[in-house]
Amino acid sequence: MNLTPVLRWSSILAWLTALPLALSAAESIPLQTLDLTLVQQGWGHAQTNRSIREKPLAIAGKTYAEGVGTHAKSTLWIQLDGGTERFRAQVGVDDACGGAGSVEFKVLGDGKTLWQSGTMKPGQAAKAVDLDLRGVKLLLLSVGDAGDGVSYDHANWAEARFEVSGPRPRAVTKPQEKPYLLTPKPGPAPRLNGPLVYGCRPGHPFLYRIPATGTRPMEFSARNLPDTLKLDPATGIITGIAPARGDYLVNLTAKNPAGQASRSLTIKSGDTLSLTPPMGWNHWYAHYNRVTDKMMREAADTLINSGLADVGYEYVNIDDCWMNAPPQAKREPDALRVGPLRDDQGNMVPNRHFPDMKALTAYIHGRGLKAGLYTSPGPLTCGGFAGSYQHEAQDARLYAEWGFDFLKYDWCSYGKIAGADPSLAALKKPYQQMGDLLKEQPRDMVFNLCQYGMGDVWKWGESVGGHCWRTAGDLGFELDRIFEVALKNSEYRAYSRPGAWNDPDYLQIGWIGNARNGGLPQPCSLSPNEQYAFMSLWCLMASPLFYSGDLSKVDDFTLNVLGNPEVIEVDQDPLGQSAAVTRLNEQVFIMVKDLADGTKAVGLFNQGEFDEPASLNWALAGVGGPQMVRDLWRQTNLGVQAGEFKTTVPPRGVVMVRLMPARPSSPTQP
Length: 670
Ligand code: GLA
What we know:
Elements: H1 4-24, E1 27-30, E2 47-48, E3 57-59, E4 62-64, E5 67-71, E6 74-79, E7 84-93, E8 103-109, E9 112-120, E10 127-132, E11 138-144, E12 154-164, E13 170-172, E14 191-192, E15 197-200, E16 205-209, E17 212-213, E18 219-223, E19 229-232, E20 237-241, E21 246-256, E22 259-269, E23 279-282, H2 284-287, H3 293-305, E24 315-317, H4 357-366, E25 370-375, H5 392-402, E26 406-409, H6 414-418, H7 424-440, E27 446-449, E28 468-470, H8 482-490, E29 501-503, E30 511-512, E31 522-523, H9 528-540, E32 545-547, H10 556-562, H11 565-571, E33 580-583, E34 588-594, E35 600-606, E36 612-617, H12 618-621, E37 627-631, E38 636-641, E39 644-649, E40 654-661
Parallel strand pairs: 15-22, 23-24, 23-32, 24-25, 25-26, 26-27, 27-28, 28-29
Antiparallel strand pairs: 1-12, 2-5, 3-4, 5-12, 6-11, 6-13, 7-10, 7-12, 8-9, 8-11, 14-17, 16-20, 18-21, 19-20, 21-22, 30-31, 33-34, 34-35, 35-40, 36-39, 37-38, 37-40
């Protein structure tokens, strides 16, 4: 048989099929020629033609001359604009990782997973990626930690190349989300917010501003208020002297022409303060060593004028840098903050930006708010200002006399006194001392331990008189890790209870300054989804809620994240439970928190870069029977569901709901 014509036709056909590629003269562009400074990764910087350890790229004994060495969790966004034909690479864990790393490579195009490696371990042969990318506009190369943390996760994209016939691939920053508002604006009728229980010590000055949203003027009244207390009907501020030991069930009412609202508040006069996590504002992450008396007064005014005080924010807290720095240290650039640390009597001297501490706390108290202060048990604070070492009793007395209601006690420079490797007793000592001293003062002072979790502080913080304690270092240094920080903090959930709170540090959204250099405030790097997730995590963990951004720049978006009363109610729940965590997959985890009324608050969190479908199963949520599902951010009922709730969680975001037992016939709409 003569095959010649057939062969000829088949070769012509093959040639014709290849023609578009040939005509487009596909160019081969190596991954490492893109701007690798845009790679986000869990450790180090992305490397060109070498591993993250700066050695030749090597996977299972084979070395590769070219490619990119990175470290989980790693993302690189690449704009392809439809110009790339193929992407090829050999991927795997680098041989020099030095431990038991495990990673998962993923290639995602326009939000869809195009390829995933499955879990890869050291010594495992490289896997080949070979993908048709025609039509894809936005590509994401990601390396996950395969669910076991990022240690030793050295990941190589070896021999990674794009075959390009149109626009060249460009590394880009992560696409920006536009801010979007979820919290409905408060209506004109009064709504009473804030905690349902409030702790005070008998015989001490009492101050409580009833948080209420709705149109002002409003008229407040209270039934069963103890005789020692007095309510100003116009402002809703209760003052007086805390009553004799006991529980007082008070009924509060707020009225205006649009309506009225009532709710109970149990005043518990006894030994325990902070029966719900403290809420307020702290100057640190916006203003560092720029804090002034004026700034603190303005902060108090803004808490009132912005409505944040109406949803429960009450403390106005000065952090470091209100004292003098020693002249000989030559570290503080502002001459008004340099001078004698103490006067002739040994009293601490505020710097010249704080001319009159008593007048400042009186101003804050006049608005129904409370005032907080910071010091360190060491000779100097972290910022290099006067600390309380060897003046503890005198300082505690002075702060109480000035009228402060809250003390943050840091650790900095105490390390030298405690020694290089302090014992548990040495770690506790300064906190026990200050805790005892604060209890002796004739006013209620909340005690906040700031020693970054040393010696498992959650196990003993309460026993030394603490009401809340930082569980880790400064969150400002690792804002890109809010999920990881929250998950770590959640491990100590068993220690969370009324009067004893784990503190994963301040809410840093809106305008904040760079913590590394005390920078001026600018819009924070977190996406809108991440900011909603941040607030939801903190509320589900019953964390202290201290906003630490620039209040003078607070906008509608930030206010809507900070000020949703249904979300805050989860934080302020009287049971004081910190949510239990269950991971559904590498991207999605849930947090379930028992609330005092028997209902559950649940957050579904997505650590991934794209929408993730998620299903909240009733067994996981610890509920049975039909449940009304309420979307807490939107303040809307989503309907009665049986058995599970299915949703889609936005990238690096949250869906936060409350599950309330319902009869099958309950209405499905709000
Ligand atoms: C430490 C604390 C911060 C802040 C600074 C002040 O870093 O963790 O919260 O108080 O000190 O210098």
